[in-house]
Amino acid sequence: MLRTLSVALYLTLVASFSLAANDVKTIEWTDLMPEEDLKLLQQMPEVQHDYSQPSPFDDNYQGDDPVAAQWQQILTSAKVVEKYNNTKVRVPGFVVPLEFDAEQNVTSFFLVPYFGACIHVPPPPPNQMIFVSGAKNLKADMIYSPFWISGTLTTEVMTHDLGQAAYSLKVDNIEEYTY
Known about the structure:
DUF3299, 5-stranded mixed barrel, two-stranded antiparallel sheet, signal, alpha+beta, CATH 2.40.50.870, Lipoprotein
């Protein structure tokens, strides 16, 4: 009887641990920015739209504007939050397709925090882009809607012509975004 009770207790503990290990953590995009990057972003002054001056967003910008330097630091940051490495997450975002299968389903994409990212210049910083692989049944005409993407997030960098992601995610589930 004591042996049966011990086995039952052991199985209950194992089942509880397995359930906890499979928990998916819902995260926001700011969770993926290290604290120092987030502070820099929050301290940024308002962008001035003086088109008579060279833009700090131009590739050939040679100015010495400290605000421009701060923007460049934020816009190119690939610093990650290590605690999310190999973590099951659920994150909302928009799809920027990278690869398709024969039926024109999107199979890999960048997940980005806002619509039109990577089409407009500049793209989001690498720590605000996630390379997603393993997608199924995501039709090309569905990319105009936001989605919840769930899967295992890693701090693996992926570079593509459209941008660089500081995070990668092997997808488990894709669902239309609902608030």
